[in-house]
Amino acid sequence: MKFGKKLLAIGMAALMSASVLAGCSQTGGNGDAGQGAAGEKVYKVGVVQYADHPSLDNCRDGFVQGLKENGFEEGKNLELTMKSAQGNDATNIQIAQTFVSNKMDLVCGVATPSAMALYNVCYDKKIPVIFNAVSDPVEAKLAKSKTEALEGISGISDALPVEHQLQLIRQILPDAKKIGIVYTTSEANSVSTIATYKELVGSYGFELVEKGISNAAELPQAMDILVSEVDCISNMTDNTVVNNLPVLLEKANAKKIPVFGSEEEQVGNGCIASAGIDYIDLGKKAGAMAAKVLKGEDISSMPYETITESKVTVNPAAAAELGIQIPEEVMSHAEVKEN
């Protein structure tokens, strides 16, 4: 029995030692990353996008491309976990908590609600947060100012080129007087963009008619009212509205009200035109910023960046169905995208 106990004790000691060694070799967060096949350090990066729609999909794909272009690639030195909150705030929090439990080295939130959830959960754990597709980081309390970052977070803003959009609408619809916008009142980026529209519409001879909603279920009724009051609709990057774009387009098209998108994917899905942002490029810039952080740069010393370039995209077929012809002055410098 004594000999058996001695063997058991030796065996237990060996198991404990193996467990400790195994723990040291696991891929861990916050600087405790594992090693790739070639002996490189492997970094764990988590990405959560607020909803599943083409604009945010492009941000996510661009983020991965940006990481790769700056030296971080899956199967080599990067372990990526990508999740969607499917427009649910509670799911956002759950995903953020899972990223903390998995000890991510860095996380990225695509769209304002996801970025806010990540920062609230990850701040105390010192996990750096990159935001992407956040229209007004200061309003969302994700930055101190345009030139000063908050501790532990920075990213890329997709502030809409509202003035370019108004110029485009005026070129295509010279006689239009009222522009309608439907938006989610709880989305900080939408509230901020509405304020910008209010400042600028008068300069282009427009009146703004806005309808606020609190959730997707209210969109059909809001659209029924809006289409009876306006000459056209200008869509924003409001996550709830974009996620339900087919509903908006169905209501508008039934009343022959043209809808202007905020980026090319919305145009491809039936809006007649947009002066918007390239969301793949937006994602790439966020990926490049994330790469700097993984290489050791202090994220708290990086002010957020804003995409200033815009491009015009048109859908002549969608316009023609409403009896609208895109002017040659617009077509000459626009990208055509039809559904």
Task: Outline the fold blueprint.
Elements: H1 2-25, E1 34-35, E2 41-49, H2 54-69, E3 78-84, H3 89-101, E4 106-110, H4 112-122, E5 129-132, E6 153-157, H5 162-172, E7 178-184, H6 188-200, E8 207-213, H7 219-226, E9 232-234, H8 239-243, H9 245-254, E10 259-260, H10 264-268, E11 273-276, H11 279-294, E12 305-306, E13 311-314, H12 316-321, H13 328-331, E14 335-336
Parallel strand pairs: 2-3, 2-4, 4-5, 5-6, 6-12, 7-8, 7-9, 9-10, 13-14
Antiparallel strand pairs: 1-2, 11-13
Helix pairs in contact: 2-11, 3-4, 7-9
Keywords for this entry:
339 residues, alpha/beta, 7-stranded mixed sheet, 4-stranded parallel sheet, elongated
3D structure, described in words:
Strands 1, 2, 3, 4, 5, 6 and 12 form a seven-stranded mixed β-sheet that branches. A four-stranded parallel β-sheet has the order 8-7-9-10, with helices on both faces. Strands 11-13-14 form a three-stranded mixed β-sheet. The chain is an alpha/beta fold. The protein has helices spanning 2-25, 54-69, 89-101, 112-122, 162-172, 188-200, 219-226, 239-243, 245-254, 264-268, 279-294, 316-321, 328-331, and strands spanning 34-35, 41-49, 78-84, 106-110, 129-132, 153-157, 178-184, 207-213, 232-234, 259-260, 273-276, 305-306, 311-314, 335-336. The longest helix has 24 residues, at 2-25. Helix content is 42%, strand content 19%.
